[in-house]
Amino acid sequence: MNRSALALALAGSLTTAIASAAFAGPIPASKMVGNEKCYGVALKGQNDCAAGAGTTCAGTSTIDYQGNSWKAVPTGTCTGMSAGGHNGSLEPLKS
Question: What pTM was computed for the model?
Fold first, then answer.
């Protein structure tokens, strides 16, 4: 393999690794200790993980306050949050 091909392969591998890190899998269980899933309060691209169609995992929500995406929030605070014209919900919302 010549140097140009090697450099290109290395650059491609690095790009893939960075992209994979940006869209990591489910959040660690340790983050959920003392927290609950709160639907409909995450900003676009800031949800914690998958919840249904339109989300595959952390950071994939396509709109602000997407009803089927959730954010981990301190237990007992979700339903008191107001975002996007509705309160947070412990169950997925219709977007």
Answer: 0.66
